[in-house]
Protein 1
Amino acid sequence: MQATDKKLGERILHAVLYEACAMALLVPLAALVLRKNMLHMGALALMMSTAAMLWNMVFNALFERLERRFCWQRTVAVRSLHALGFEGGLVVLLVPLAAWWLDTGYWQAFLLDLGFFVFFLPYTYAFNWLYDHLRARFVARRALSAVTE
């Protein structure tokens, strides 16, 4: 499957869906593991989610430029590179935020982020694979519908 030119509205939809699904899974789990209340972890998740959504849109736009420039296909290797690059950028953005919010050191926040990485690396791969396949079906149906009208 090739990278496509996506408009801003679709990039926003993609980012919001990605974050909403992740938060629904991760906030209760993080609250339980860290023994924090759901509201405290939910607020952190919302802040992290906002930063991640912005990063998602910027990173995906840049990555898709690379795909077009180098004629990459979305193989397992390219999808893995995408997931690693995305998550690596989030470490730089989110460790200081988590350290501040949880009133902990950078090392502890980094370890927490590693736990998130263990969750998000396969999640990012799976979410984007599913999104791409559902999008392809939607685009194909829309094209078929336009032809038959």
Protein 2
Amino acid sequence: MIILMIFAAASAVYGALVWHIASGSHFYRVWWGLAVAFGAAAFGAHAGIFVRMPAIGRHVLEGLVLAAAAGALIMFGLILTQFHAEAPDGLDTLIVLGAQVRPDGPCQALKYRLDTATAYLKAHPETRCIVSGGQGDNEPESEAAAMARALVQKGVAPERLALEDQSHSTVENLRFSAKIAGPLDQKIGIATNNFHVYRSLKLARKAGYTAAFGLAAPSTALYLPNNVLREIFGLVKDKLAGNI
């Protein structure tokens, strides 16, 4: 019971932390939902509710919890397989996936993506680049426009850049960028944060990219649990939607 109460408190505090950074996502509510679930479980254990449940009901509940935990662990393992992805030399095109743009510029996650893309583009001057991301309701401009300007400031020639500024999800990033990239059997890299590479590659292959490679950018350790959990939900959602 004490462990459940600790989990409940930790989930509530972490959810508040994620909410405080105003990422534009409502995923912090999942942490508060977990806090409620852990709190309810602690109360149930303290009140002896589970002990008084019919055996079959208790076994079903335990089975569902274990199945969910096992599934989450498997997906976490799959996400880790691309955590350090390095694109090969000689990419024809590098697609940089967008993330939140704030009034003062790209968020930290997007800065990591841009730094990683810049390093690759400078080392491979023959590779062209597509920056992909539309404008959200809470953004001052499209993510593509902000990314293109940042890359030019970092020394990437403007003529190497193409903007895809209509997408509002990773699925759309890749589908819309495909119309700009040309033949999808060319070597195409996808630059995004480490926790996001696995799902991005799955989506790309489903969208017709036959030679897609991940290029993993770093991420902020403090928000990694939130990002990984969000990716797990994203994998489930995209699987159910037929996107992967």
Protein 3
Amino acid sequence: MTAFDVFERIADGLAMPDETRVLLGLAPVHPSGLDHLGPIGRAEMLAAYRSQADATPEIRKAASTARTIEILAVRGLGIIGMNDSLLRATVALNRPVFRALLLDPDSTAAERRAAEVGESHESFASGVSLCVARLRELRGQTGAQVEVYFYDMLPTWRVLALDNVQFVSAFGEEHEGHTSPMYKIAASAHGALHRGFRRFTDELRAQSRQVI
């Protein structure tokens, strides 16, 4: 049992209010009960996970019915590029509209990220190119609606948007997106997070170069 598990059990035992749980990074027990907070409205953060591995069942469940899947990643291999990737089987079977924002392998940002993770730029860039090639294959073999864009900025956010649900994590000097804490965020009439990430990814895609 990890320290996170112990902390969550203590919170459950103390019947900690949901607004406090959310502030501490724990999932609310009754999200709709947060409406009494007034202008905040219904809680946007539906769950918090230690990493993508813990969130995988929920991600795949949401993806199974999604009509549109959009990802903001670096290389995307663990999400869509390999046969056993997180979303590849779902996209191949259900053929939703799939859009990927990947880091431009020829950019200075790619050089910086390669240095952060201790790889050569050549090795790092080949990973992005491999994912693009596998996405071309996916489109050709299954007829899936695939779009791929290259952005040129140092990666910070990693976003998996499945219709109106987002799974968000962050890149850091010592963390890959799939190993950092991940948050499940839903659209809310008064919330800022979902709207902000949607606006950010839409604008980044508009400024990026489409390669597929």
